[in-house]
Amino acid sequence: MVAETSPRLTVLTYNVLTAADARGPARRAVLRGLLCADVIALQEAEAGLLGPEFTVVDLPGRSPSGSGECLASRFPLGAVHTLDEGCMAAEVRSPLGTVLVVHHRGTFELDGEVVRERQALATARSVEELAGADVPVVLLGDLNATPDSASVRFLTGKQSLDGMSVCYADAWAAACPDDPGHTFTPRNPLVRAGQMPAERGRRIDYVLVRGGAHGPLLDVAGCRLIGTEPVDGVWVSDHFGVLAELRPPDHPPGQWAVT
Fold it and tell me: Are 119 and 146 contacting, i.e. CB atoms less than 8 angstroms apart?
């Protein structure tokens, strides 16, 4: 078993719903108390949500209301790479060593899976160019795709795209295999009141850990959803956040444990 004293890294992805919608100021007041991970990927966020303990880098492009995507870290950052308008990567100098953290967002349109496939493929190719096999990679984001979609199946090693295959471990599936883990669900009244009134519930927000021939370089110690209940009557967002705790495996993938 992995010792409980082994170093850990907590990562969070959260689509926080633009402050221009649904009582934004009240939601933001509650949200700040939930942003407690080491590394955070935010979608539909505006500047100033995170405190001075974080280094924040923004993805290119913001909406007319000023909302957009960012990646934030409590730990020092090395090189930062803009992969395309919907994706960026940063080297995080964490207690686990250097980890390449990727913030990826898939197009939201329900009928846009062909676009999400292209986006996932482009991100995966960029990561392989940036990170050698011995560099842990964590991909965070609102992928706007369910686990059975082609884009997520590609990322999690269940199918190839355009002659390429990768295999990222899905933190939620690893920690909670019997729970659908819907992050966008009509149980949340902000979903029922929003632009998709016929929504039935989906898991579309992910923490993924890149693996190789013998699995990922980081193990999933736990994973849970946040923002799943109102605080003083206020729902933080129409999405639930995904918070995962990562740790080293008990011995390196591809080797036998020393007995």
Answer: no
| Distance in angstroms (rounded) separating the CA atoms of residues 156 and 210 | 9
Predicted TM-score (pTM) of the model is 0.95
| Domain boundary assignment for the chain | 9-247
C-alpha 202/C-alpha 237 separation (Å) is: 15
Write out pLDDT tens, residues 145-190: 999 999 999 999 999 999 999 999 999 999 999 999 999 999 999 9
User: Which tokens sit at 218?
Assistant: 């980081």
CA distance 129 to 135: 12
| Spatial distance between the Cα atoms of 193 and 231, rounded to a whole number of angstroms | 18
What is the per-residue pLDDT for 4? 60
**Cα dihedral 144/174/189/148 (nearest 10):** 40
User: Is the Cα dihedral 244, 135, 97, 253 positive or negative?
Assistant: positive
The DSSP output letter for 75 is: S
The stretch 204-214 carries a mean pLDDT of 96
How far apart CA 256 and CA 259 sit, in angstroms, is: 9
- Fold (CATH) for 9-247: Deoxyribonuclease I; Chain A (3.60.10)
Give residues with Cβ within 8 angstroms of 190, minimum separation 6.
17, 22, 235, 237, 238
Q: Which residues pair with 259 in a beta bridge?
A: none
